[in-house]
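U., I forgot to send this yesterday:
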Amino acid sequence: MSARAVSESSFASDLLSLTKPRLSGLVIATAAGGMWLAPGELTVPRILVTLLATAGTVGAANALNCYWERESDRFMARTRNRPLPAGRMEPGVALAFGLALAALSLPALALGANLLTAGLGLVALLSYVLAYTPLKARTSASMLVGAVPGALPPLMGWTAVTGQIDAGGYVLFAILFLWQIPHTIAIGLFRKDEYAAAGLKTVAMERGEDSSRLQIVLYLVALVPMTLLPFQLHIAGAWYLAAAVVLGLSFLGLGATGLFRRLGRPWARQTFLFSLLYLAGLFAALMLDSGGHG
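Result:
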């Protein structure tokens, strides 16, 4: 392979990394779940366009976030090798890439799904880039703002099928919103020093570790009953209900153990990792026990 080909391949890889593929993959999975669970006609073209355009919108938000945080990313082990802090890419390239991706993805959402879904995508993009990202350096309450765009993709999947926001869509949004808070607080606990070096605020830094553990438990107490509502709304069946109870009580038990035993970073990392398994398991149960689409 020529040096030019290697250089082009590296540049393409760096562009892709701006979209944060692993995070985007999780978001796309929840959007697909929202589409599958929503009542109504579901066609292959609509599925493909909606998911690709949602991926583009999420990727645009992440690329613009990388542009905004290029300086603070230098101080965190998990971000210092990104293209901008590592000096492999000019900031203007990342900015142009993010804007171009948004300019393509949002109209595609409007045409492939509907205007409501595109509007939700725009809200997700703007709230993530213009509200959540700058607030991260000012207050730990930014996590509540950031949980909004993070919770919108399953609702976008729902509205792409139904064309409206109703109880089922609200519940999916609420589940993702509540899940993100303990997930985010746990990251802030075990990466506390890195966040401090980067000048980003976390609950652990502003309120202390005891408050962090307490808030994890309180949000889990709210999350567990919320996950039972898909059964009440007949979106999913008894097998899902059983899975939601087992997963929820396991997550709550893990949180409570950390709270009452005042556990530290190993527990926080374990809580973060379990939160990912929890969400994957919950959505898998939702989709498998939904009785098929519609």
